[in-house]
Write a structure and sequence with these properties.
Layout lengths: L1 E2 L2 E2 L1 E6 L5 E7 L2 E9 L5 E7 L2 E9 L6 E7 L2 E9 L7 E7 L2 E9 L5 E7 L2 E10 L4 E8 L2 E11 L11 E9 L2 E9 L5 E7 L2 E9 L5 E7 L2 E2 L6 H6 L3 H10 L2 H12 L17 H4 L4 H30 L13 E2 H10 L9 H9 L15 E2 L1 H16 L9 H17 L11 H7 L3 H10 L2 E2 L7 E4 H10 L9 H9 L16 E2 L1 H15 L2 H8 L14 H24 L6 H32 L10 H83 L29 H9 L3 H6 L1
Antiparallel strand pairs: 1-2, 3-4, 4-5, 5-6, 6-7, 7-8, 8-9, 9-10, 10-11, 11-12, 12-13, 13-14, 14-15, 15-16, 16-17, 17-18, 18-19, 19-20, 20-21, 22-23, 24-25, 25-26
Helix pairs in contact: 5-9, 8-9, 10-18, 14-18, 15-18, 16-17, 16-18
Length: 760
């Protein structure tokens, strides 16, 4: 097409070197949309601006099996895009680009099947990210620097499953890395159940540390080159368990060099007599001390039998709750945290026994040396052995008065807890945090910042150990300070939300504002407040979309948002976490755009392919489907409509959460912290000013005293020196009046006073 002698409209142009362009021209310049074909067979189809690739398009290399689909700027890969490095599609990268360089957030899948998902800088893994070595059954999540593990992270080694067992094993290290090595302070969880926490040097235990053996026995001391420096003196304790005859037989059978091996077996529980086996040895010493010494052996044996009868069910419950809110794992096994444990306790209605979750934390802390600041920490990990110990300890404290005159008491307490609380209610998840997989994964993105806010507004508990905790009134005061109590979220609704699963908050007359809230209750209440505070109109206004644009079928729709959450939930979490840490002031619309663009890459690929044949398809005549297909089509339409409704519901929920946390709660907390810091600075300034004024007054008083002393030594002293002190209403020193003229001053001073009297 030509217009006014210029190439204008659709056309084809072939350069002398063989490069061909098919598409739109605007006054001799390739513009809008077109297809480039190079002599080597490479092609580009997509948006064009002033003759260069600009916007969205797809490139295929003619000499190598490489293709890219995504955004371009000035002829280079820039923005969101996906590149495939082989024809099979097993090696690819999807994420952010900056002028042909991987920069930002992206996912790299290698030909071997290994996957990295995280931050990039200058084509290297740099920042926060997760690497899965599927070939070696390893996984690392944490900080990277120039392609190497550097900083804080978690590395897991997944071992082969035990024969005839559904439970796999793993070793896991959580701590500091330097140049890919475990170096600094870290914690290593062994597959056997043993735990080491302490110093590391180049992948070896070196320095001070604590080694907890699989039976719960603890060694504190020095390590050198991955070995204990001073072996614990347990030989005497070990031999004390043998009678005289067996001791002599033992010494004759085992030489001195092998005694240490026997001590090690005693340390790690290999010689355990527990009916549960050496891998799970219950720590019942403190509980058994509550009973007469003659009954302790029978109490221990009976309660171990009770646990053994329920161990399969308890393992299943542990596995179920520990996986809540977690992304997929190579072996689908996870460590339970205190957050999961709280959810288990609430689901099983432990708190209906007139004991709060905070009280349970304090009770359990008395059986261990938990630091005060970690008593209510949601991130504390709980091994299966610890989980079982916790159940027995809580069973005793809840039911021991009822069975104190019956035997075996601890057995009866545990059996009643299993019968009335755990069996009927376990794995029936309630609450707003773990209610569904997409909701759950997205909610977890806000948990770190909310924990930071929670700790700021905690107060020391009145009773020992005086650990920080939050009461219901503190929570309400916090929302009031944040100016979030309004006509949508009233104080009455606040109480209703907290009281949903807390039967002892109020009776018919009074409300118990002294009720303590653990972090799970705090966070789930915030999720409920988000749905109350953020109205539907706010969500639509925020999206800047018409009412019918949330149908899930248009660009920027809930479908893309849903796809993004399901496929890239951890990516969103990391991007939001970085926003919070950096106190980013990005607009909410740009944040939503980030979420939508990431999924648009995958969805848009068939659009490019379709555009190649649009013109041909429009010229072809297709027959309409027969009447026999009407039923199936209508059924599919109903399914699609139901899916769209679910996607729309999820998209609105996600946006409500985003508005509440990112635009209301977190900015309000930031404003309050700035205000508190300003008040602290003003107080310090006031104290410093008062101190400076006091010093100046003391200095002035000292000078006056010196002048008084000097004047007192003169014989003609009769003047009160205090007149030298500047009066309160004296003019400032900055104002200096002009002196009177000399003749005026003389005439005034020489004028006799009595002259006026004579005239009178």
């Amino acid at each position: 097409m030509f217009s006014e002698g210029l190439m204008h409209g659709q056309g084809t142009y072939i350069w002398a070197d063989g490069l061909k362009y098919e598409g739109e021209f605007v006054k001799n310049i390739p513009m809008n949309h077109g297809v480039y074909t190079w002599p080597d067979g490479s092609t580009y189809e997509g948006e064009v601006s002033h003759g260069v690739r600009q916007g969205f398009g797809m490139f295929k290399c003619g000499t190598h099996p490489v293709s890219y689909i995504g955004h371009w700027c000035h002829g280079k890969r820039h923005g969101k895009g996906s590149i495939y490095y082989n024809q099979e599609g097993t090696s690819w990268y999807e994420g952010d680009w900056v002028y042909n360089i991987k920069n930002g957030w992206g996912i790299r899948c290698y030909k071997s099947g290994n996957i990295y998902e995280g931050q990039w800088e200058n084509n290297m893994r740099h920042g926060e990210g997760r690497m899965r070595w599927l070939t070696a059954n390893e996984e690392y999540t944490g900080q990277w620097e120039k392609g190497i593990q550097n900083g804080f992270g978690t590395h897991s080694w997944f071992l082969k499953r035990i024969p005839n067992s559904q439970y796999p094993l793993r070793n896991e290290y959580i701590g500091e890395f330097v140049n890919g090595y475990r170096h600094g302070h870290g914690k290593f969880y062994y597959a056997s159940g043993a735990v080491y926490e302490g110093e590391w040097v180049s992948n070896k235990k070196h320095g001070m540390g604590r080694l907890t053996f699989k039976n719960g026995r603890v060694y504190d001391g020095s390590f050198s080159n991955d070995h204990i420096v001073e072996f614990p003196n347990l030989e005497a304790e070990f031999l004390s368990h043998l009678d005289l005859s067996s001791e002599s037989r033992f010494k004759s059978r085992y030489p001195a060099s092998s005694i240490s091996a026997e001590i090690i077996r005693k340390l790690d529980g290999s010689e355990s007599n527990s009916v549960l086996g050496s891998s799970i040895e219950l720590n019942l010493s403190l509980l058994l001390n509550m009973y007469p010494e003659k009954d302790q052996a029978e109490e221990k044996k009976q309660v171990e039998y009770a646990v053994l009868r329920n161990i399969t069910e308890l393992r299943r419950i542990y596995s179920f709750y520990s996986s809540l809110g977690c992304d997929h794992s190579l072996d689908n096994t996870f460590l339970m945290t205190k957050l999961h444990f709280w959810r288990f306790l609430k689901d099983c209605k432990f708190h209906h026994h007139k004991i709060t979750l905070a009280d349970m934390d304090r009770i359990l802390s008395t059986y261990s040396d938990t630091p005060v600041e970690e008593i209510h920490s949601p991130f504390t990990t709980i091994l299966l052995r610890t989980f079982l110990n916790y159940l027995l300890q809580l069973a005793y404290h809840i039911h021991h008065k009822e069975y104190q005159n019956r035997s075996p008491s601890l057995f009866l307490c545990f059996t009643k807890l299993m019968t009335e609380n755990i069996h009927p209610n376990a794995c029936r998840v309630k609450g707003s945090l773990f209610s569904g997989q997409p909701w759950m994964l997205y909610s977890m993105n806000y948990i770190d910042k909310c924990w930071e806010i929670y700790t700021v507004y905690c107060r020391p508990h009145t009773a020992p150990p005086h650990e920080p905790s939050m009461k219901m009134r503190h929570f309400l005061w916090m929302l009031k300070d944040f100016k979030m109590i309004n006509k949508e979220l009233t104080a009455t609704k606040f109480v209703e939300v907290i009281a949903e699963d807390n039967p002892f908050i109020h009776d018919s007359v009074d409300i118990n504002f002294e009720l303590e809230l653990v972090f799970l209750e705090f966070f789930e209440a915030l999720l409920s407040f988000a749905l109350i505070s953020v109205t539907e109109q706010m969500t639509k206004t925020y999206l800047n979309l018409p009412n019918d644009d949330l149908s899930g079928n248009k660009r920027g729709s809930s479908y893309m948002t849903n796809q993004n959450i399901q496929d890239r939930s951890s990516s969103i979490g990391a991007s939001q976490e970085s926003d919070l840490q950096d106190s980013s002031t990005k607009s909410s619309s740009s944040k939503l755009g980030l979420m939508l663009d990431r999924s648009k890459i995958r969805v848009s690929e068939p659009k490019i392919k379709k555009s190649l044949s649009d013109e041909r398809i429009s010229k072809m005549n297709f027959k309409s489907p027969g009447k026999g297909l009407t039923f199936f089509l209508s059924q599919n339409e109903r399914k699609e409509k139901s899916k769209d409704e679910q996607k729309e519901k999820l998209a609105v929920w996600i946006m409500s959460m985003y508005i509440f946390f990112m635009n209301i709660l977190f900015p309000a907390h930031k404003r309050e912290e700035i205000l508190k810091e300003k008040i602290r600075e003003d107080r310090l300034h006031h104290v410093a000013t008062a101190h400076q004024r006091k010093l100046e007054n003391d200095e002035l008083e000292a000078r006056l005293n010196t002048l008084r002393e000097e004047a007192a030594r003169r014989p003609d002293y009769d003047v009160d020196i205090t007149v030298l002190k500047e009066p309160a209403d004296a003019p400032s020193s900055s104002f200096t009046p002009s002196p009177p003229k000399e003749d005026t001053a003389v005439s005034q001073s020489s004028k006799p006073v009595t002259s006026k009297k004579k005239k009178k």
